[in-house]
Design brief:
By secondary structure, the chain is mostly helical. 70% of the residues lie in helices and 0% in strands. Helix 4 runs parallel beside helix 14.
């Protein structure tokens, strides 16, 4: 173990601060359901945006992205489009406003504003969205849990610990033991303090990570000065053709096996499929997780848009400065690191902890470890809060005890929080690695989610029955596909998943009567979506000729394109800066200046008009 006393002190101080935060906000969180789940809808957009960005700055994803940057260089900026990362641009431009106008507490409660409280398929639509939310939350909890364990194992080898514990652990389960220990800290402050403590914890963690990322950026740039990165031709370019065009032969031959295992050799086809899926996933709106909860917690629709935009600015430059810095140090000192896992195979996801453990100074190691532990806790606590909201708000209060007192609601949240964490931990024992669960979430599970959630915003005839059958057919197909198709191939089956879910949505909608007219009118006039709302629009205008329909489709889509370009520039800017690629850096800054100027006029100045 190479941690020094100062590093340990920083980590312990951070962990103790999380306990203090939970206790500090305990009374505030117990005021009522809204205070616990949504922070009373009183938190300003920039705090929620910073918190949301912190939730996305997770330890498992960062380990994965460092391995991608190491292998694929600048081309690695496209692979997170699997999520897709540009969904934040769609949220920023219009979808966050649409969602926040509902005044709902969860995605399931939002469905009542779209389909009503009674009628064919309403109960089924609530059940299926709750099931999806919980499946995705449990998946993300397992994803974060296994990543944290792999990370800690490198810093605290089990050989040093096992003499102090009264039980033995098989080597493959050592990460799970570490995961359980640090999960308990995240569970405590988020269960006790609710959304208020989650946001404050995220802000502290972000401050720590910012200092650490800037510090490590200077170290990486200094080490690179006068040195040469031994990388293949094309590594510095984000552009690509039909094939990836990177050959590590004679440099680090094992990387070629990684590229083959990832299935990204035909990069052009991979990119097209990823973008196709990503567009529809983004148009569908946020999945029912921590991102949606933060949007619903904002004070107004305008602040919801600002929050989503702020996430890009606050997250990408800092996160990618860390990613490229660790990549540079990993490339410079590759042959001095041990990247083998318990089975003796090279695991490129171990680059991040290996670099921290071997090549960073005392103090910075403690800051970075505290920040990355906080990153895990942010993602874990935000996801757990979302799962709690669905179980308590949409199951307990709706079907079990609708008249529960505030005390009973808070107690239910405590019990549900413990249950959610326990399930996430148990699932973590069945996860092989970070990438496998990631592929299952983004390629299979979300593939079944998209069609129904695109239609719910944009087609008036889509009803609760259609939502239920579209989601059910999509999710069941996704589960079956994930069992019979290798995870690296799931993305290429997305059109089939989408078609099955779309068919279920359309058939289910036409099999029953349309949604009640009063519900449709209320939704259309409150949310003001664009799309195929002709009959409802005509009814609204007939009774209220002064109503102004949403005619911003073209402007919204224009802003999405400009926003996506801006997002890519924010991603690649710190990479070019630390790699000292001067010409590319100047071009990137110039594009940023132009796109930000455009968005100031076409988005920020028009927020009140949308």
């Amino acid at each position: 173990m190479k941690l020094h006393l100062l590093d340990v002190a920083i980590i312990v101080l951070y962990l103790l601060s999380t306990i203090f935060i939970g206790l500090w906000y305990r009374k505030k969180a117990r005021e009522n359901k809204e205070s616990y789940m949504l922070g009373g809808k009183s938190l300003p957009w920039y705090k929620l945006g910073l918190s949301d960005a912190s939730d996305m700055f997770d330890i498992s994803g960062t380990m994965w992205m460092v391995s991608l940057c190491f292998v694929y260089g600048m081309k690695s900026i496209w692979i997170p489009w699997l999520w897709p990362v540009f969904n934040q641009v769609f949220l920023m431009m219009y979808l966050s406003r649409w969602l926040r106008r509902s005044n709902a507490a969860t995605g399931a409660e939002w469905l009542e504003t779209r389909f009503g409280k009674t009628g064919p398929g309403v109960t089924g639509s609530n059940v299926v969205v709750i099931a999806f939310a919980l499946l995705s939350c449990f998946g993300f909890l397992a994803y974060g849990f296994i990543g944290l364990g792999k990370f800690i194992e490198i810093f605290i080898p089990w050989d040093l610990v096992k003499v102090y514990v009264p039980f033995s652990v098989a080597p493959q389960y050592v990460p799970h033991v570490y995961g359980i220990i640090f999960t308990l800290f995240a569970m405590f402050y988020s269960i006790i303090g609710g959304m208020h403590s989650i946001v404050l914890g995220d802000m502290i963690k972000y401050g720590i990570m910012t200092v650490a990322c800037v510090w490590i950026g200077f170290i990486a740039a200094g080490k690179l000065n006068g040195s040469h990165l031994n990388v293949p031709d094309g590594w510095y370019s984000p552009f690509f053709g039909k094939n990836l065009g990177l050959s590590w032969t004679g440099i680090i031959d094992e990387v070629n096996n990684k590229i083959k295992a990832d299935g990204y050799s035909l990069f052009g086809l991979f990119f097209m499929m990823m973008t196709f899926k990503g567009f529809f996933a983004a148009v569908a709106g946020p999945a029912p997780n921590y991102d949606m909860q933060k949007i619903l917690s904002t004070r107004s629709p305008e602040e919801a848009s600002k929050m989503s935009g702020f996430v890009n600015i606050i997250l990408l430059p800092i996160r990618y400065s860390l990613i490229v810095s660790l990549t540079i140090l990993g490339l410079l000192f590759y042959h001095q690191m041990d990247l083998k896992d318990a089975h003796g195979a090279i695991d490129f996801e171990r680059i991040l902890p290996a670099v921290i453990n071997n090549f960073l100074p005392v103090g910075l190691v403690g800051l970075l470890l505290a920040g990355l532990l906080g990153a895990f806790m942010s993602t874990f606590s935000g996801t757990m809060n979302a799962a709690q909201a669905y179980i308590v708000n949409d199951i307990y209060l709706k079907y079990i005890n609708p008249k529960a007192s505030t005390k009973k609601i808070i107690t239910a949240n405590y019990l549900v929080g413990v249950f959610v964490v326990a399930v996430g931990v148990i699932l973590g024992f069945f996860v092989k690695d970070v990438n496998s669960v990631l592929q299952w979430i983004v390629s299979a599970l979300y593939g079944g989610y998209i069609a129904s959630n695109v239609l719910k915003w944009h087609w008036w005839r889509f009803n609760a029955n259609g939502f239920f059958y579209g989601m059910l057919s999509g999710i069941l197909s996704a589960m079956i596909f994930s069992l019979i198709i290798p995870s690296v191939e799931l993305l290429y089956w997305f059109p089939v998943l989408f078609a099955i879910s779309l068919a279920g949505s359309i058939i289910g909608s036409y099999a029953t009567a349309p949604t009640d007219v009063a519900v449709l009118r209320s939704f259309y006039t409150t949310v003001r979506p664009w799309g195929f709302w002709g009959p409802v629009k005509a009814m609204v205008l007939e009774s209220d000729p002064s109503f102004a329909p949403n005619k911003n489709f073209k402007l919204n889509m224009f802003n999405v394109v400009i926003g996506t370009i801006t997002q890519c520039c924010l991603t690649i800017l710190p990479m070019y800066l630390i790699l000292a690629q001067k010409t590319s850096l100047i071009v990137t800054v110039a594009i940023l200046v132009v796109t930000i100027t455009i968005l100031k006029k076409t988005w920020w100045d028009k927020l009140k008009d949308y």
